[in-house]
Amino acid sequence: MQSPAIRPAGSADADQLFGLATQLATSAVPQRQAFQRSLEQILSDPERHLLVAADGDQLQGYLYGMVHPAFHANGPIGWVEELIVDETIRGAGIGRQLVVAYEHWAFAEHDARHISLATRRAGDFYRAIGYEESAVYFKRRRPAD
């Protein structure tokens, strides 16, 4: 398999990004209109970064991350919100390539002090590329109206 090109996402990637997003979600079903609104916000915000791995016109995965200031870190920190590689080609190093590209953006271009993330299913992957467990993740759902 040829190594994919890692590049920033664009609005023309929307259909394939949505398809990949449906592979990521396990506790929610992505809705296309909500996805499109989020995509527009992400693409217009310089503190957010949406990278894709592309083999020609075919997207193989994406990483959505951001940087934000944090008092405890004495500066900005990076946060990986979503990372997905098409389920048919996992294990080929594409996730690692996306993380490396995001790390460069966060560390070199935005002076992030560290990068954090939460994961339910990919702990072994992140440990294998040098990440360590450091916290427990909690979540509270919005109450029904």
UniProtKB/TrEMBL annotation:
Keywords: Acyltransferase, Ribonucleoprotein, Ribosomal protein, Transferase. GO terms for cellular component: ribosome. Residues 4-145 form the N-acetyltransferase domain. PROSITE patterns: GNAT (PS51186). InterPro entries: Acyl_CoA_acyltransferase, Bact_Acetyltransf, GNAT_dom. Signal peptide: none annotated. Pfam families: Acetyltransf_1. GO terms for molecular function: acyltransferase activity, transferring groups other than amino-acyl groups. The keyword Ribonucleoprotein applies. This is Ribosomal protein S18 acetylase RimI.
